[in-house]
């Protein structure tokens, strides 16, 4: 299988993030992608391919151009104002209650991008969980190129290809970044595929978190079906979207399927949800599925609360490939660094119809069992 990878992600160099108002060691770090790359390298069955540049047009086909301009200029603004920060993170957001009682027209008129970079971060950002640094824009642009090149490989005839996107994308909405995500790699790729093929596309999101951005982007579209298995937002980020009764509107009515799971969800719970998701995808025509692949569903993930083990990823990959559709597989989250490479190998080998063939990982036995 071809693996699209670029070292450009390294310039999105994050060491801290904020969690409930305090600085904590970052989870979404460069080492994540490097762990996956080296495990796929060691496997011998994957070929690394560099992305090609696709320009801004596929991004602004999905995102507000203002978001792109903000991400492009935010860090130089921080620098030019001599704001002493290791990273930019907003602290003021336009909470909807701020505008209570105002008409929709008045709100449309009043809520606009302010001049100060802190205000701009609040205007375009969902949360303080997407620290922005000097290299963020370049890395985020490169992650989009990785996603689009992965789509190109599949459009050219491959059965499946994997894009090692970093930063991830599925929390980024049309006009909003957040949750470690800046541009929605999977949504941009899915839209590009609809344009290239004229077919319907399904997105299967198996990251631990709900992909609120992807849901938002395709909410009213009948040509992209979004199916997501994730932690119930009643207890987990992104908190305000991801419930089972969110099914789309207008042309997208019935095209959005959320399958929220309980804390402690097991391999069996997960496979049951996977089968429901696969059924929902099989029900609509189309030949390509975009997979938002996350490993924060893993039992030892520091920010997740599911109980999955490495072997279930092989089985999920196998079942998804059983749909008989071509797969554009794009990396989203997953924060337990020691297991990321094995979990990715397991999923991708499953998707290719190869056996799992576990490799020993320092501190971990085959199958993800902790050995010391
Ligand atoms: Zn996630």
Can you offer a commentary on this structure?
The chain has helices at residues 30-43, 57-60, 65-80, 104-110, 117-124, 136-155, 185-197, 212-218, 267-282, 310-321, 337-352; strands spanning 2-4, 16-19, 22-25, 47-49, 160-163, 201-205, 224-231, 256-261, 288-293, 326-331. With 372 residues, it is α/β, with parallel strands linked by helices. Helix 3 (65-80) runs antiparallel to helix 5 (117-124), helix 6 packs parallel to helix 7 and helix 9 packs parallel to helix 10. The chain is globular, with a radius of gyration of 20 Å. Bound molecules: zinc ion. Zinc ion (ZN) binds next to loops.
Number of helices: 11
What CATH calls the topology is: Arginase, Chain A
Helices and strands, in order, run as EEEHEHHHHHEHEHEEHEHEH
Query: Which class do the helix and strand fractions yield?
Result: alpha/beta
Mean pLDDT: 95
What's the count of strands?
A: 10
| Structural domains: how many | 1
| Ions, cofactors and other bound molecules | zinc ion
Tell me which CATH architecture applies here. Answer: 3-Layer(aba) Sandwich
Q: Give the amount of beta strand, in percent.
A: 5-15%
